[in-house]
Design a protein that fits this description.
With 268 residues, this protein is of the alpha/beta class. It has one domain: Rossmann fold, CATH 3.40.50. The chain is 34% helix and 22% strand. It has a 6-stranded mixed β-sheet, with helices on both faces. The longest helix is centred in the middle third of the chain and has 14 residues. The radius of gyration is 19 Å and the shape is globular. The N terminus is likely disordered.
């Protein structure tokens, strides 16, 4: 994979990210309870579960926005349990909202250029002339073309249609050259057309990288995910591919009465 030093031949871990006995307690409330995750390199892996299942807390633990109460996290065989969020990001674990389109009144291309500057370590050199940033334009346009936003390059980000805003968030994430992308509900609040576009985009950018996503839309999960982990009350209820997880009686019971259960069981 470009930009990363390969591990010595034969010693690269099969799982790019692993957690062991991951626990997070908030004043006696156990939000994440003994979670053992194994994310296979190159897979699209979904984290699903009813509201309050611990999915977001799990994401916050993996990206180090929260410290675990107990347990360990390993990325590419390296213990990152106590590392700072910035260190994790530099290692190649990038969560989409961390660098989403936070500059709504800049153009789409300018947003990508800022993300590219961050990776180059020049993000706060705002006194540099505009011309010195021109060399980043080619790279920015290349990324925009990848996510189908090249025709929107000069549009101010705030004016983008909703689904295209999410594409811009993914594009800014790509500008940091992640080895592992964490996407938090990438299709939330979208109509069918946008859902389909973003789903195809995730599939496209998953080439040569690993994706872990929290997603409520079971159609998206069943369509593109290699593996699924179901959380309920902070614990893992089931893991496997969509076929095995969606027919698991415990999963169906946990989702009972929700749209997800309805979809997972084919509407029966």
């Amino acid at each position: 994979m470009s930009g990363h030093n390969p591990t010595a031949a034969g010693s690269a871990p099969e799982f790019i990210l692993e957690t062991s006995g991951l626990v997070k307690e908030f004043r006696g409330f156990v939000a994440v309870n003994g979670v053992d995750l194994k994310i296979r390199k190159g897979h699209i892996h979904a984290l699903i579960g009813p509201n309050g299942a611990g999915k977001t807390t799990c994401f916050n633990l993996l990206t180090k926005f929260l410290e675990p109460t107990r347990g360990s996290i390993h990325f590419k065989g390296v213990d990152i349990t106590r590392e700072a969020p910035q260190k994790i990001a530099r290692m190649g674990v990038i969560r989409s909202f961390q660098i989403s389109a936070v500059f709504p009144h800049l153009t789409v291309r300018e947003n990508i250029r800022i993300a590219l500057q961050r990776r180059l370590g020049t993000s706060f050199h705002f006194w540099k002339t505009e011309r010195s940033l021109d060399k980043l334009d080619d790279k920015a346009m290349e990324i925009l073309a990848l996510v189908g936003l090249e025709t929107y390059a000069r549009m101010v980000a705030v004016e983008l249609p909703y689904g295209r805003k999410r594409a811009l968030e993914i594009a800014t994430t790509l500008a940091l050259e992640p080895e592992m992308m964490l996407l938090d509900e990438p299709t939330q609040g979208m109509g069918h057309e946008d859902v389909d576009k973003v789903t195809q985009l995730i599939k496209k950018v998953s080439e040569n990288r690993t994706i872990l996503m929290v997603e409520h839309n079971m159609k998206v999960v069943s369509g593109i995910c290699d593996a699924i982990t179901v959380l309920a009350r902070g614990s893992i209820l089931a893991q496997g591919d969509y076929a095995s997880v969606s027919t698991n009686p415990a999963v169906i019971e946990a989702y009972m009465g929700t749209e997800a259960a309805h979809q997972a069981t084919g509407g029966h």
